Amino acid sequence: MIRILLVEDEPLFRKGLAKMIAGSGMGWTVCGEAENGQEAERMIAELLPDLVLTDIRMPLMDGLELLQRTKASYPAIEFIVITGYQDFQYAQTALRSGALDLLVKPCSKQDIHDALGKANAQLASSQLKRRKEASEHQLLLENTLRASFLRFPTRKETVAELERVLAERQLVLFHIADFLPAHKQYVKRDVPLLQFAVLNIISELLDVHGLAGTLLLIESGRFALFMPGQVEALALCEAVQDTVHRLLGLAIVSHQAGAVGDLSRLADTYEAVMAAGGPQRAQQQEEPSGEAAGGAAPINRAKQQLLAAQTLSFILAGQTEALGQYLEQQMKDIRAMREDAWRIEALSFSFALQETARKQLEQEYDSPALPARIGKLHNCRSGDEVYAWLQEETARFMGALGSWQHKYNAGTVTRAIRYMEEHYAEPLSLQQVASHIHLNATYFSHLFKKETGRSFVTYLVDLRMEKAKKLLSNTDLNVTEVSGLIGYDLPNYFAKLFKQSTGLSPKEYRKQHQP
Q1: How far apart are CA 5 and CA 34, in angstroms?
Q2: Angle at Cα 264 formed by Cα 263 and Cα 269, nearest 5°?
Q3: Residues 104 and 93 sit within 8 Å (Cβ to Cβ)
Q4: CA angle 205, 211, 213 (to 5 degrees)
Q5: Do 288 and 358 share a domain, yes or no?
Q6: Would you call 169 helix, strand, or coil by DSSP?
Q7: Which of 10, 117, 8, 35 has the alpha carbon at shortest distance from 490?
Q8: Which among 120-124, 284-288, 309-313, 372-376 has the top mean pLDDT?
């Protein structure tokens, strides 16, 4: 779904654009409307739209200045510029300043749809590129950090970046002495799956304890956690030991290694801890080689975070059906993978859904059913069996999503409107109202438009205009006083909005309606 901000000083043309966009059936939505660049700049900071559709010639701030100022602060927001033939020179400047496309008035419905289709493709490509770049950069940082522990060559610029990120952090080391305990029926091929599960258990416990941390698989059975230096890590270490043993049946030992300092000291610290109390490599079971030992887990954790982010974006956009289709495709892709990748990819998928359910859908952490679910995945012997397991995980997640939506959709917009009626005379933002009813602003914006048929901004303007009508009809307050009482500091701006709403100036309205 593309969220579009319309910026146009001609109300009829702006309303026509909004109508064409709403009736397209393409999943585009108008998240706000502004009549000049100055107003639009404030709304962009509040709404963070995907696309701004703006005229060039407007009062206070024109579309070209709006484009240039926005691109400096929010380079990912795309612009389509609307112009007349006489403004072609300005339009060329707009393209050089980063506008995605131009529309020349008068614009047909097909012109609008073609331009938005182009924007849709560009935004999808840009988002995919940014996520891929972020994932690749995260993997580069993880590999560099791992190399620092193992005395492998590193790039100076990446090390410098890591040292900035990890400044004033403390290091906690974890190790698992034996992945094949006698009381469990694990085999060597399960080691990557178990390591991945341990990483996610530690990550989830960090969230549960409200702690920030950078987590890394160093080598088989050995994990590093970088935490803020002032945080007491003992409670977390005890929780990790208890949870890993209870869920996976594995014994995990922790060691608080103190302040990180510079990365060149990591190898010394790591080797000293392993020599003093850690398992000796030669005395342990044969280690997995290649991707199983170190490469698979970081890659899959990056995929997991990408899947969680994409899942959340569908939820916040209110696109439940599209989310179902997306998850179905992910499940089919996993079923089609090589046999040695099924389980770890499936577990990555499951943890992504679990993370989203806990953070967004208010689901409790550490379900008693988790060990049984991991055990069932462990016993899958074909792509079809893994696919069936994934279907169960998805059904559980979609059930939680349905419950969450029912809980918050019922009466949410009514409560928001009541709050707006009580605070319309104050500066009132979408984020402020969404926070009051404990919803994400993007999801609230979608829900509000769906239930009222109007955007938040349009509804607020209409509400204020109704209050202004009552004040003009029943009091002797002047226009400036009325403007201030309904939340507008600029009387001229209020007067313009009032005339757009009623067809009359405030003074004309008072003459017609005051007894």
Answers
A1: 8
A2: 85
A3: no
A4: 90
A5: no
A6: strand
A7: 35
A8: 309-313
Do 176 and 250 form a contact (C-beta atoms < 8 A)?
yes
Q: What tens digit of pLDDT does each residue of 134-193 get? A: 778 888 888 888 899 988 988 898 988 888 888 888 999 999 988 888 888 787 877 877
482 and 498 in contact (C-beta within 8 Å)? Answer: no
Q: Kindly write down the DSSP assignment for every residue of 118-168, as one continuous string.
A: HHHHHHHHHHHHHHHHHHHHHHHHHHHHHHHHHT----HHHHHHHHHHTTT
- Count of CB atoms situated within 10 Å of the CB of 401: 22
* Residue 284 binned pLDDT confidence (cut-offs 50, 70, 90): very low
H/E element holding 444? Answer: helix 441-452
Pinpoint the alpha helices (H) of 277-365: 296-316, 320-335, 339-359
Residue 420 placed within a domain: no
Tokens coding 285: 């079971």
CATH number at residue 261: 3.30.70.1230
Q: CA 89 to CA 494: how far, in whole Å? A: 33
User: Which residue shows structure tokens 């950090």?
Assistant: 145
Q: Take residue 187 and report the two structure tokens written for it.
A: 């085999």
Residues 191 and 90 in one domain: no
Distance CA 355, CA 343 (A): 18
Report in angstroms the alpha-carbon separations of 231 from 56, 199, 209, 243, 258. Answer: 53, 20, 11, 20, 11
Same domain? For 440 and 458 the reply is: yes
Confidence of residue 287 (pLDDT cuts 50, 70, 90): very low
Q: What is the 3 state secondary structure string of 205-227?
A: HHHHCCCCCEEEEEECCEEEEEE
Q: Is residue 416 part of a domain?
A: no
pTM score: 0.56
